[in-house]
Task: structure prediction
Amino acid sequence: MNKNDAAQVFLRVILGLTFFIHGLSKFQGGIGNTAGFFNSLGIPGFMAYIVAGIELIGGLAVILGLGTKIVSVLFAIILLGAIVTAKLPAGFLGNGQTAGYELDLALLAISVYLACASRTVFSVDHMFFNKKGV
Result:
C-alpha cells in the first residue's frame, strides 16, 4: 500500500464515520423532528427517513469500503441538497444562528473524490472486484 492508498483509506473512514454519526443522531434525536425540519424547508418529511438511512447504512458501508463509489454519489447529492436548501442563505461560515456550508463543502469534495477514485487494497470492494485501475 502506498501513501495515496493510505490517504484514501483515511478519507473514506472519516467520511463514513461522519455520515454514520449524523444518521445515528437523526434517529436518536427523533426522526420526526428531522422530518419536521425538512417540512419547514419545503422538503417532504419522508425524505428525512431516506436521508438518515443513507447516512447511517451508507456511512458503515463506506467505512468498510463496500459500494464506496455509489454511496459517495448519494452523499454528494445529500450534501448539495443541504447546501442549497438549508446552508447557503447563512453563508460560508454561518450567521451565528445557522451553521454555514464550509463543512458540507469539504465533505462534498471528499465524496466526489471517492466517487472517482480507484478502489484501495483495504476495502471490501477490492476483495470482490480485484481489478487494477477500477
